[in-house]
Amino acid sequence: MANEFAKMRHLRVGLIATILVVAVLGLSLIGVVSDPTFDPAAAGAWLSMLAGLSLGIPLVAPLLLAVLASRQVDIEHQGSGWLLQTTAGLAPGIVCRAKFCALGAVVLLATLATSLVSLALGRVLAGISAPPPLGHWAGFTACILVVNLTLLAAHVLLAALVENQLIGLGLAVLGTLLGLFSKNLPEVLAHLTPWGCYALAEAASYRDGELVALPISYPSFVALGVLGGAVFTLVTSRFDRQEA
């Protein structure tokens, strides 16, 4: 873990995470500022912020998560790091788990920062005076965190398996499109990919011309987290039994 955090200083991981937060916040505020019907005193004013986050995160997060994983793993391909660390007693699976834990801490902080700063901006910049729906907001944040960490784990595995990091980035672009299109698909189809789960986490949207809060299927995200963790553990355990 200490080695992975040390590598981050040279890979501009902090900058990428900051771009993630700023880009999502910018997209969430654009919808509020550009909406002529927005009323900061209305009881549902916070739904505009939630709708903006529900749109901004699937647009920005998949590609930047792929970039984070790619940069953190590609350094091992370029510098024969897998062989060097195996010689030191660290199998590839252990290294991948360390990379995920280190990057996961960054993604956790970025996701929480996005959620909390959005609350602050809604109050300060947008002037929303109504009390925020903290329960729904916290649930949305937790579900987004599960999807972000699942995608991060998938990209760490892909980056470790394939030296050409453009493949992971291309998959992230495709995933962004899947995440956006899944908003218009039945929930059963949205469950088929982790990017589609962004649509399942949508906290607010327009229905019949009216902005409303949307229910979130929390069991789906519990299942996603358990399945993603099990697959990541299984694959990295197989890495431990392979030669670098």
Automatic annotation (TrEMBL):
Keyword match Nuclease: no
Membrane spanning residue stretches: 12-33, 45-68, 100-125, 137-159, 166-185, 216-235
Keywords: Membrane, Transmembrane, Transmembrane helix
Name of this protein: ABC transporter permease
Organism from which the protein derives: Brachybacterium hainanense
